[in-house]
Specification:
The protein is an alpha+beta fold and 126 residues long. Helix content is 27%, strand content 27%. It has 4 helices and 7 strands, in the order αααβββαββββ. A hairpin with a 2-residue loop joins β6 (107-115) and β7 (118-125).
């Protein structure tokens, strides 16, 4: 696992650029919510989880959407702690450092994309 994190750290800028470019080519992310982000899961095989948070209320507005299941238990949860840690770049993207996901227990990075008053969070397995 340590070697994955080292490879990620060495290539972080290239990886982030690739992810940003790929997402930009998919049209607005929020438009994919109605089909549970299936296009994202097929574009990114390492994608584990997608959810949406309101930047105004700081509450999760969607379920936790996994590739093969949907978990409604996280809807309406306060996510202000996540928003406080985000450093959204000028292009509306933000990337978290690698961490162990509480939802899947895998080492992942979270990519966030702000669209209007919504922020789409995507956890990608390293």
């Amino acid at each position: 696992m340590k070697e994955y994190m080292e490879v990620y750290a060495q290539n972080r800028k290239k990886i982030e650029s690739f992810i940003e470019e790929s997402i930009e080519n998919l049209a607005p992310l929020c438009s994919h919510e109605e089909n549970n982000f299936k296009t994202l899961f097929s574009t990114f095989p390492s994608l584990e989880l997608v959810y949406v948070v309101s930047s105004t209320t700081k509450k999760q507005t969607s379920a936790n959407i996994f590739k093969y299941r949907v978990d409604e238990s996280e809807r309406d949860k306060d996510r202000s702690y996540l928003l406080e840690r985000l450093e959204i770049k000028e292009n509306d993207f933000a990337f978290a450092q690698p961490y162990q996901s509480s939802a899947t227990s895998n080492i992942c990075i979270t990519v966030s994309k702000k669209e209007g008053s919504s922020i789409v969070f995507m956890d990608l397995r390293l």
